[in-house]
Amino acid sequence: MIFAVLLPLLFACFIPFLSRFKDKVHTGIFTFFIPFIIFIYFIRFIGNSFEPIRHTYRWIPSLNINFDFYLDGLSLLFVLLISGIGALVVLYSIYYLSKSERLGHFYVFLLMFMAAMLGVVLSDNVFVLYTFWELTSISSFLLIGYWHFKERSRYGAQKSLLLTVFGGLSMFGGLTLLTVITGTTSIQAMISQSDVILQSNYLPLILIFILLGAFTKSAQFPFHIWLPDAMEAPTPVSAYLHSATMVKAGLFLVARFSPIFSSYEWFFIIVSLVGIVTLCWGSYMAVRQTDLKAILAFSTISQLGMIMAMLGFGTKIAVFAAVFHILNHATFKGSLFMVAGIVDHETGTRDIRKLGGLLTFMPMTATLALFGTFSMAGIPLPFLNGFYSKELFFESTLNLSNATSTFANGLVTIIPYLAVFGSIFTFAYSMYFLFGVFAGPKQLDQLPKKPHEAPLGMLISPIVLVLGVILIGIMPNSVNGSFLAHAAHSINSQFQSQSVAFWHGLSTPFIMSLIVIGVGTLIYVTRDKWANIYQLIPGTRSVNNIYNKGVSGMDTFPHKLTNTYMSGSLKHYMTYIILAIVIGTSTIMFLTNGFSINFSDLADITIIEMVVVLVILIGAVATIFANNNLAIILITGIVGYGVSILFVIYRAPDLALTQLVIETVSVALFLLCFYHLPQLRKRDEKLGSKTLNVIIAISIGSLMTLIGISAHSTNWYESISEYFIEKSLPVGGGKNIVNVILVDMRGLDTLFEITVLGIAGLAIFSLIKLRKNKEAE
Amino acid sequence: MEIIILILSGALISIAVYNLLQKQLLRIIIGTVLISHGAHLFILTMGKLKRGQPPVLKETVTSYTDPLPQALILTSIVISFGITSLLLVLSYRTANENKTDNMDQLRGKSNE
After folding, report:
1. ipTM of the complex
2. Which end of chain A is more exposed for a tag (fewer CB within 10 A), N or C?
């Protein structure tokens, strides 16, 4: 089984080589065989006697992270969708993408997604699941941004990544908590310990974390906003990732974990409520769209909401209806996406306002669209699979009685009404899609291209899908016991079997269907009259606005914040640094009672020293008041010579010598430069900033003095100097101890010192040299 | 005497920081020069002053001045000289190119 998951990734390595011949052979032709082989491999598991299979491959056993593949009914359903729809989508893309596109990139991304998605649905190990989960987000991001030169593509890609990875991280938190509580990383083992989880204090947190992951991935309200923008991807991608497979990963996650949470009432409340709201909102918004793919995107959102709601119900019939609808939705929505792609490809536009009357030009496409939309609308015809699952959905909304709290009871009461409300709009947009494109007046002058029927190759994939719609519609029980029942059983272990029939009397669900069709037709016919309601709801208040403001805010707020203190002024930076030193150090000194003074053990004071000290002090103060370049340089020189005299007095002959030399060179250098530097001016500062400067300067100076006195007055550690005095001759072989320390004992420091000096020299040289070159020009 | 030198060192650092907070390039350079003088005196005092002979080994001498601060300061003197000369050339170029030595006018462009 691991080979099936890794096969797309392995093959992706060869794509770059194969895409070199793309002028002769379309890369998609090679790629087609990969999902096809996987499909053939897995389809043999279908059967009444199917039992779950587990394969384990060790990866990081010490962390309990292994490739733990677990194939049960639910995984099988998804694996077949991923490989089956995947094969059809690749086939379709051969005709959709011309050979001038970057085919290599496209198929590598697509195969990467395929492997990741297979990994998600097959992994039993939560961390491996999470890894594959994020990989699907990344490949979706790459595919949405495939036409990266379009601004909308980049926007859509970023949006989907931000939202789904946000959800993924939150899910990671939930999975980690689950692992900590149960002590296992296997989902099946967690399910067997569900009573431990249900008694945990972290239960609400776990539920919210995991559901956030599922809701963002499956585009549930209010996280649905990324899906319409994801439609910027090439149409095969929309049909595959953003309708049939990836967006259903959230449903898969909820289904996978529902054996753990189903008895927890908040699971029912949150999942059902979010699902049903998404159903209504998605279908309501779909009617208003003008882009064909946007209609389908909102339609997908609403259908996902419907399945999510059914998973929230958790009853046997609801669970069965959910898996049934997952399959049905993949067939009819996949074909409709391909129809939209064909229309776009052959007419050059997806704007429904410009399209119309295409039936005469594209009869085949129109027929495919007819089956797809009628199935989606749930029209009661015995050869449309959409009707069955919609009918089961209605039935499941009527059989919710396991609620205990008042809130849940209220929800149970209104759910059937909301279900009908959402389905009415589903019906309306299905008709809008079908008749808006293929019926009505022709507007050929509006179309960028002269429309004609699509090539046969492009039609094969939607034809296969529509055949699926019809076959399941005619024989709904053919996929039932051998396939869907296993999937439903993995979600709700009490589920045994559910027979599906087209006609079971004039029951309430059937009446609900009739109401949907009646009111839906009315709404579709009169849609122009009440279109203004969209100005009221949602009007300008949309989740998109919040998202956009949030994203731009994340950009501008830190920018503004940084700009308030990163003023570009050296003075400000110095102020921050010195204030931080003064406040931090003095606080710690004060708290630890670090200040101390001790007058014993001091050297005597002689007159000559005092004279030198005074000279230095006067010179230093004079630098503040000097307003002449020459004067300030000479004064600084005096200070430096003063310091070297102090070195002589304090028995540091090497220092004194070095200081004298350096001071002389420095003054010479200053004098060389001063001619070119602008003349010093009087400081024209405001009194406020002047006072602040004085305070800062005096505080750092006094702090340094206090630290020095405290350090001098205490004697906590033995000095290490004795070592150098003793070892200088035997180890270093020199009598001048300072020199031995520098060139021998701490030789590496000196080497670095030389390096610093060398770099400074190079910098100075280049600064001078650059100028010369410029002047030469 | 140590305390007096430490006060001198503190005063030098104060004056140096005050110079660093000014707007003109030359004053800032002078500030860096003074701050290193202050730091050198500070380090020197940490090894006590006027104890023993200069740290050059002789048969007759038994007590030497602490050589460690001297080694540190020696390194520091050389490095601060490097910094000073680099700053000088840099400020000379800056003032030449931009026709100003006022730090307030040398803030660069926004978004840089």
Report:
1. 0.92
2. C
